[in-house]
Specification:
Structural class: alpha+beta
Number of helices: 11
Radius of gyration: 40 Å
Length: about 450
């Protein structure tokens, strides 16, 4: 029994360790995007709208087919009723029943059914592009969040290095202060700098956690301290990979624009279908039936159920023409709403085109700005690195009695390095945006 309990405990511990280690596996960008696409509620709702439009297409196709129905019924009659044998009145309880069937085939409806079908087909295709648009937007948002984590992780590393450098100097000055070899304010000034470095490190770590939380929310998974992503140290910050020709043609292949353009076609065919209701509609119907009555007699004898049904079979066909005259303003109101739907679809298309055009122009502008900012930040880092090297050498050699020069040079270099890191990831992100618009299909 004791051995069994130990074995059970070992299995539980193994599973816990396995689950923890599994949860600690870092996610790549492709994995984050795949999970976000799978778990997105907004994308799921968009897909439901697409599936609903597919049902509309199937229903519109079915409307072109003949409609048919059949029925059967049986019951009791009490009191005064008709004797089917003599067509005279009788006053007794009888059993009655029968079956019926009918079918209707539309022959001409001013192309209403075809226009309705085409309208729903364009709406279904539009919703399919709407799904693609939501997928593309989600991929871009996940990429942004992913880059933010990498950015803040690198800033955290730099903050920790700055804190470590200050720690070494504080340790050195404490030793010198114990020997009375420095002015006490030098130590306190550097201790204040150390507190500032600690605050910067804490803030950077909090930003990492906040950016991880934002990514988890986009992926629609619970946030945990063990969540992490893979570190991509080979970031390409050039222009390579961006198809500038396709970028200039973004308006023609962006899913949002295609979605809106298809909405116009769907609305135009919806108007044609609404106008078709103003014209007469021609159709043909077929009817079949038979009946049974317990009161039926033939030569004074009862006729059984199967024979009555076979003897009483009746059928008919009817060619009908339905001419709309007064319909309570129903057709005209539908036409008016269809015209408004076209105007709305055109306005949405113009809005989508303008939005995409502005976004592409902004993406180009911001990419060029990020590129120049990164190069300037590189130049600034090179200058401040030399200034800090000189200040650190003078401070360590005791050629100056003030820590102000050292702290100023240190903080200038730290800010320049942080700006360089931020500029690098901004450049990468802006490139991702350009790739998004140039490669989207």
């Amino acid at each position: 029994m004791k051995f069994l309990m130990m074995k059970t405990n070992l299995i539980v511990i193994f599973l816990l360790v396995f689950n923890v280690s599994k949860s600690q596996n870092p996610y790549s960008l492709d994995q984050c995007i795949a999970i976000a696409l799978k778990n997105s509620n907004v994308l799921y709702l968009t897909d439901l709208a697409h599936r609903e439009s597919q049902v509309d297409v199937s229903r519109a196709k079915a409307f072109k087919l003949p409609s048919a129905s059949a029925g059967v019924g049986h019951g009791l009659n009490f009191g005064r009723s008709i004797d089917p044998s003599t067509n005279g009145f009788i006053n007794e309880q009888i059993t009655r029943g029968g079956f019926s069937g009918n079918a209707y085939l539309p022959l001409w409806q001013a192309n209403q059914l075809n226009n309705n079908l085409k309208s729903f087909q364009f709406a279904e295709e539009a919703n399919r592009w709407s799904v693609k648009n939501e997928e593309a937007n989600l991929k871009l948002r996940v990429t942004v969040a992913y880059m933010q984590i990498l950015n803040y992780k690198e800033l955290t590393t730099r903050a920790e290095l700055q804190e470590g450098t200050t720690t070494d100097q504080v340790t050195r000055l404490r030793s010198l202060d114990a020997q009375g070899a420095i002015i006490p304010s030098q130590l306190t000034d550097l201790q204040g700098q150390y507190a500032l470095d600690q605050l910067n490190t804490f803030s950077a770590k909090q930003e990492v956690k906040a950016s991880k939380l934002a990514l988890c929310q986009l992926m629609n998974i619970p946030y945990g301290e063990t969540f992490d992503i893979t570190d991509d140290s080979n970031l390409n910050i050039g222009i390579e990979g961006v198809n500038m020709t396709k970028l200039n043609d973004a308006l023609s292949h962006h899913p949002m624009v295609k979605y809106r353009e298809l909405e116009i076609k769907s609305a135009e065919l919806g108007l044609a279908a609404a106008k078709a209701q103003q014209y007469p509609q021609l159709g043909i119907s077929f009817n079949l039936g038979s009946n049974y009555s317990s009161a039926y007699r033939l030569n004074g004898e009862k006729v059984n159920y199967p024979k009555q049904l076979s003897n009483n079979i009746n059928y008919s066909t009817l060619l009908s023409l339905n001419v709309p005259i007064i319909d309570g303003y129903r057709i005209k109101s539908q036409i008016k709403k269809s015209e408004i739907a076209i105007d709305r679809a055109k306005a949405n298309t113009d809005l989508a085109r303008n939005t995409i055009q502005q976004q592409v122009e902004e993406a180009k502008f911001l990419f060029d700005g990020a590129q120049q900012k990164y190069k300037l930040a590189e130049s600034q880092v090179n200058s401040f690195q030399e200034s800090f090297r000189i200040a650190e050498t003078r401070f360590n050699n005791g050629t100056t009695n003030s820590t102000v020069e050292y702290i100023l040079a240190k903080n200038n270099l730290a800010r320049a390095l942080n700006l360089l890191t931020t500029s690098k990831y901004e450049w990468v992100f802006r490139k991702k945006v350009l790739e998004f618009y140039s490669n989207i299909e």
